[in-house]
Amino acid sequence: MSDHLARATVSGVRAFAAVTTNLVEEARRRHDCYPVGTAALGRTMTAALLLAADLKTEEAITIRISGDGPLGTVVADANSQGTVRGYVENPQVDLPLVSRKLDVGSAVGIGNVFVRRFTGLKQPFTGSAPLISGEIAEDVANYLLVSEQTPSTVALGVLVNSDLSVAAAGGFLVQAMPGAEDEVLAVVEKNLAALPPVSELVNQGSDANAILKQIFAGMSAKVFDSSNLAFYCQCSTARVENMLVSLGPEELSGMVEQGEAEIICHFCGEKYNFDRTQLKRLLEQAFPTQV
Q1: Per-block average pLDDT, block size 10, for the chain (291 residues)?
Q2: Domains, in order of start, for the chain
Q3: Which of 7, 122, 164, 228 is least surrounded by CB atoms within 10 angstroms?
Q4: What CA–CA distances, in Å, run from 39 to 30, 144, 203?
């Protein structure tokens, strides 16, 4: 099943559901994550995509989970086009299972969740809230309530195979809008309580529309066309070259003397290697009077 996101509404309640198995596996592979790191990163990237689903064109969002646990910081960037990238500071953390589940809460620890919305204004909007469990879904829901005053239900899940690859990943976001009827909310809450874990739904073959149908079971929901999702990083050789130039002539000259430089993108793990000839060319082009 390809990664995708779908949305639906019914009488003052809206919901977004996403299947993210392939993009989470791509992130796991790029960052060489152990299972608990895969789960934390996959949940955070899925959450970012769900929050970005309501953005306008060219807008983007960043979620940063900053806890004192061994994983360190977990970051995900997503945009309205359905692309996401992310990283976990310490991807190879290994913790024992708790009740046969990955202990993401302990791996994340105590801290805060930060959400930054890039809306085209000079200054992006940044909000934050304390982490209440470190399990990501509850923390994002708490952030939406505390910082954006939007009551929400968030479910996120990542199922990892014994060979460390991702078997299934996905999530959903349900929000009550102003004027939502109590009777509708009661039915939605009942349906949500009956749902199995979202990773189990995806692993059993449910797509995003099927998940939405279960959330709005017994109601006539308006379902919108689904959209594709993918792991994508904006890094490139040109961007890395600009970064090297921004370091200044002295730093760049030092790299020329060393004869090589390797730059690794935090978000995707891509490696960019430059030899002496390439570094010297950058130095001559950017700082001709310094050569």
Answers
A1: 95 95 97 97 98 88 97 96 96 92 96 91 87 97 94 96 97 92 92 96 96 94 92 94 92 92 93 94 85 58
A2: 4-231 (3.55.30.10), 237-290 (3.90.1280.10)
A3: 122
A4: 14, 21, 15
Nearest to 37 by CA among 10, 70, 81: 70
SS (H, E, C) 267-284: CCCCEEEEEHHHHHHHHH
d(CA 104, CA 40): 6
Phi-psi region at 179: left, alpha or beta (left = phi > 0; alpha = psi -120 to 50): left
Do residues 164 and 38 make contact, with C-beta atoms less than 8 angstroms apart? yes
- Global confidence as pTM: 0.93
How many alpha carbons fall within 13 Å on the CB side of residue 44? 31
